[in-house]
Amino acid sequence: MNNSATSELPLFVYGSLMPGEIAFNLISDEVEKSESAILEGAVTCVRDGFPFVDIDHKRWGELSSVPGYLLFSKESRNQEMLDVAILYENPQFYELVEVDIKLGSQKIRAQVFSGKAPKRDDVVILEEPWRSSNNPLFAHAFPQIGIELEELLRNFELNPAIFPTVYWPQMVRVEGLFLVLTSILEHLISLKYGYGEEFQPGSTPQQPSIKQPTIRKKLQAFSFENDWKTAFTEVEIPEIIVFDVWERNKSFNSSNQTQALYAWYAVRSNLGHRGKSSWKDADKVLKALVGLYSTMRAYLVIALPGIESGWQVMGASGAPICVYPKDSRISR
Questions:
Q1: pLDDT, tens digit, 9 for 90 and up, residues 261-282
Q2: Is the CATH number of domain 11-125 3.10.490.10?
Q3: pTM, whole model, 2 decimals?
């Protein structure tokens, strides 16, 4: 990737940096205007859940095309716009190249992030324009978690000593659903802030006091996103308190909007290091599952307009609203 790009050409975007998409707000402050446009002689591909374009004209021919947007920067801000985009993309998989873009009846010279080694690994060629709302993790896997969670909550028994033959099959399902859900969260965070390790989310009201993994910095930034904050206020969050693995005297409370993602992600990390043998542990995992699922559901509805109608394909209930029951069978 040309990390020292200084071209004044506009930027053609076709994925999560498009206007109306999940990551556009990262670059929007540098954009003066955007216009719908087409990259001809190319196709949109997906690798590891992330879109890229293959601009091999000889391979695809002029009839192939990729719809997207041309981003024109504010005056004297083109380099700043490119800097944000370059940091967002992963230099292992993308390179910035110049191409001709069709804008109405005109041909405009522009820059685009093209996929490196487009034939490498498992690549899917898309027949329709890429949209995050069509991402199979959000459109299909996520509502399936809700359907199974809703069923599980009807009969869940938390006491392994009294009902081991009932408890453990259910607990395996809870842990499995939660691990899949957190993997969807990780993918969502990566689409929001970029796939590369170099990207650092913008400043937030609270900066980490110690060196932390990139995922924690991204989780922190995500906690302050307006859509996430709105989603958090719209749902009922079961309270859990989890101690920080980085600072043992520090704890996170899922009822606190700025701490909830840390709390749920800490539960995810603990699943790989502790056996869930007591009902208190099971209670914590189940509450984390319900809390994270409920908040993510509300967020996806806000951030990805139209996704609810797509969820109906999964069944009559789509992605059901799940509430942690407060009966004596679960809360002890």
A1: 999 998 888 775 555 555 567 7
A2: yes
A3: 0.86
Question: Using a CB cutoff of 8 Å and minimum separation of 24, what contacts does 193-196 make?
Answer: 193/23, 193/26, 193/88, 193/218, 193/221, 193/222, 194/23, 194/87, 194/88, 194/89, 194/90, 195/50, 195/89, 195/90, 195/93, 196/87, 196/88, 196/89, 196/90, 196/91, 196/92
d(CA 136, CA 275): 31
CB 67 within 8 A of CB 129: yes
What's the pLDDT band for 212 if we cut at 50, 70, 90? very low
- Delimit the domains of the chain by residue range: 11-125, 132-314
Q: CA-to-CA distance for 19 and 159, rounded, in angstroms?
A: 49
Cβ(286)–Cβ(171) below 8 Å: no
- The string of pLDDT tens digits covering residues 66-75 is 999 999 999 8
Dihedral over alpha carbons 191, 193, 197, 198 (to 10 degrees):
140
C-beta of residue 11 within 8 angstroms of C-beta of residue 110: yes
